[in-house]
Design goal:
Helices cover about 65% and strands about 5% of the residues. It has about 550 residues and is mainly alpha-helical. Among the domains are: about 355-445; about 450-555. The strands form two sheets. It has a six-stranded mixed sheet, with helices on both faces. A two-stranded antiparallel ribbon has the order 1-2. α1 runs antiparallel to α5 (about 95-115), α1 (about 5-25) runs parallel beside α6 and α9 crosses α10 (about 185-205). The radius of gyration is 25 Å and the shape is globular.
């Protein structure tokens, strides 16, 4: 058997084994957790409305125009609804598939740019980092756009290397950038562009950027990204300013969305998010600095590896700084950094495996344990007033620290079949740990409205009205399978409320109370704190149907 044939067979064997593991890993217990976060409810509700109305161009949230994001993820969800119906597992199908795709992507990139073992380690790291795994189970578009952006960067970088099919790779990069723009806006082209500009500045050779310019690629980009933007502008005269200026420029440069966080907000998010591989990523950065010091003495293969490592480091740094400078910060924004740090970590693990030093990995696990202890101390301080959440945090942080020590350190002491078996056993432990940690912590932080909707679904009639009072539960219309009325709250519905006449369904609180005292039966969902505030002032006749620790639903008759 020729070397080329052997490499090809090994490559496809790896892909098959990885797919089998990843599908089992990400799909385990996929459909048993209710929609908990606001984003999850939104990204089910909008596609559901698209299916009902048949309008795939103008996104609507609870019946009003909603132009914050482009529609690609909505369209994918529409396909899932039409094919499988609205179920927890079918709605989470696309995030899971993209999570798997991301792991396969870093395996292929690591295999091609470094070595087979680097690719395998990178895929293992990405699939088991805490934040990446959590978002593979959430119905939000940040994971999806991060995979498109990462694929854009890797294909474009590959087109600059001495690889086959350079033209096809560059066209693929433009196509993925267009898909990223259709998923979450101009960030799909801005982030890859910034990464390459900074990288080429560091290389001191801006002429290379001309190799990334392609008229064919521009045509592909416009063919994919332009039609919907043009069509929705023609249908909605108020779209262009709100979307391009409000949702891009003003969101980034001002506090208009009230999501401002300190500059280093993403530092602890990243440290915790890449657990249990935090120290492995740190070792990769240290390796890069060591190689930089002796770069003049590198041979050809080492130069290529150094250049790729530098590109991945620039990718990570640009993403981190770009979102750190933003005036709007949310935890999922940092996800595009994870494929690059997984590749950096995979290369660091490969180097240590080849170092012939049996203790090369040993310190990595203990560093993560120390970081976990520090994290526990900070967490206890922040959660002093919530004893239940503090206890949960301590339990899961201890489990993460043990997992870090075992997963990162122990398997690499063993070689041959014994080592392979122990690694497989370790990943099984990873599976059990992540599947118990992520859902419990998330449910404690943000609970679903589903328990309250079950009480209403048994009693509501077509002529009744359902209200959200001074807030809006985005998963409520999904569970009730109908639009709901909103009183005393605008939030992200503000644009749609002013764009059309929605006064019958969206109203001030004072208008709601006259309806509540009328003859029509009214169900009301709200926070307990809001309910208690109103009933100290207005003691209207009512009946409480159900309540949870945070929320309550009551009826006027």
């Amino acid at each position: 058997m020729s070397t080329t044939s052997f490499v090809a067979r090994t490559f496809w064997k790896d892909i098959g084994l990885l797919c089998t593991f990843l599908v089992c890993f990400f799909s385990y217990d996929l459909g048993n957790r209710p929609f908990a976060t606001p984003d999850e409810g939104r990204y089910v509700e909008i596609p559901r409305e698209m299916v009902v109305t048949g309008d795939l161009i103008t996104p609507r949230l609870n019946g009003v125009k909603y132009f914050e994001k482009p529609p690609l993820f909505y369209w994918l969800q529409v396909g899932a609804i039409r094919t499988c119906g609205i179920h927890f597992w079918s709605m989470r199908l696309w995030p899971m598939l993209f999570a798997i795709l991301g792991c396969l992507m870093v395996y292929i990139a690591g295999h091609v740019l470094f070595s087979r073992h680097t690719g395998l380690y990178a895929a293992g790291i990405l699939s088991t980092t805490l934040l990446y795994y959590v978002h593979s189970r959430l119905i939000i578009l940040d994971l999806v756009v991060s995979i498109f952006i990462s694929t854009t960067l890797l294909l474009a970088y590959g087109s600059l290397q001495s690889l086959a099919r350079k033209k096809e790779m560059l066209l693929g990069a433009y196509a993925c950038a267009a898909l990223a723009c259709l998923t979450k806006g101009l960030i799909g082209i801005v982030l890859p562009g910034l990464v390459f500009v900074v990288w080429l500045i560091l290389k001191r050779d801006m002429r290379i950027i001309l190799n990334l310019f392609s008229f064919g690629g521009i045509a592909v980009f416009l063919a994919i990204a332009a039609p919907w933007h043009i069509w929705v502008c023609l249908r909605n005269a108020d779209f262009a300013y709100f979307y391009f200026i409000g949702e891009h420029f003003l969101r980034y440069t001002t506090n208009v969305h009230q999501r401002f966080q300190p500059f280093l907000f993403f530092a602890p998010v990243l440290i915790l998010g890449v657990f249990p591989w935090t120290s492995a990523i740190g070792s990769a950065i240290r390796d890069l600095f060591d190689t930089y010091k002796k770069r003049k003495a590198l041979v050809d293969q080492e130069v290529s590896s150094y250049e790729t490592t530098l590109f991945l480091a620039v990718w990570s740094g640009v993403v981190f700084l770009f979102f750190s400078f933003s005036h709007s910060k949310l935890i999922p924004y940092i996800l595009p950094i994870f494929p690059s740090v997984a590749l950096l970590g995979g290369q660091a693990l490969r180097k240590r495996e080849e170092s012939q030093n049996p203790y090369a990995f040993y310190h990595l696990g203990y560093i993560d344990v120390v970081l976990t202890v520090i994290l526990c101390g900070y967490g206890i301080y922040e959660l002093l007033e919530d004893t239940q959440l503090k206890a949960l945090f301590l339990t899961e942080a201890l489990r993460i620290s043990i997992f870090s020590l075992v997963a990162v350190s122990l398997p690499f002491f063993f070689k041959g079949m014994q080592g392979q078996f122990l690694k497989a056993l370790t990943w099984t432990f990873v599976l059990i740990s992540l599947n118990t940690i992520a859902p419990k912590v998330q449910e404690k932080i943000k609970s679903s409205i589903k328990p309250l909707t079950e009480a209403v679904a048994l009693n509501v009639r077509p002529q009744d009205r359902v209200f959200c009072l001074e807030m809006y539960y985005q998963d409520l219309p999904v569970y009730l399978n109908q639009l709901v009325d909103v009183a005393g709250w605008k939030g992200e519905l503000a644009f749609g409320i002013h764009a059309e006449d929605t006064s019958y369904r969206m109203m001030p609180s004072q208008d709601f109370w006259s309806i509540f005292q009328g003859k029509q039966r009214v169900f009301v969902f709200t926070r307990k704190s809001i309910y208690e505030r109103y009933w100290q002032q207005l003691r209207f006749s009512h009946k409480i149907l159900a309540e949870t620790e945070q929320d309550i639903v009551f009826i006027n008759r």
